[in-house]
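Quick illustration, no need to memorize.
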Amino acid sequence: MIIRLAELADLNLCHELDGSYTTSYVWQMQANENERSIAVRFDTVRLPRPMKVAYPREPDELLSNWRQGECFLVAADASGQPIAFLDMTAQAWHGVGWIRNLIVHQNHRRQGIATAMLRAARHWALDNELIKLTLETQTKNFPAICFAQKHRFAFCGYNDRYYSNGDIAVFFSSNL
């Protein structure tokens, strides 16, 4: 496997990667508000049966993200075919690399590819004088939440109805 910057020709293949996932757990949001306080918490809840969830992003975003010329990485197999991609933008004004997309082809998951992609993104961020990485995921994407926590990302916030399908996004951050 080789990790490299994506080329225009890679985008169609990245678009074809299935970002859906199956989960038996979700983070369920509980919010209580009164005139003096707002309390929000996320509970890990086991589902009655595994649920397949579609990836919440529109494929048309890939070209726009790639054109920004920032950190759009692909992991390619021995034949040069992309099997994963990571899309990150630099928010230089506060030193953050924002990971918008990290997708690994279903046949290649749980083989360390996402970890290698994250490592490459960290190097890119350091080379671009960033001090922190932030990643986003759905509250339904328990595998991604576990991945973030495994890699020492700390929960740092949420946005209700962040995705176009109305899903809640949770954000995780890690200092470099």
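The first helix runs from residue 10 to 16.
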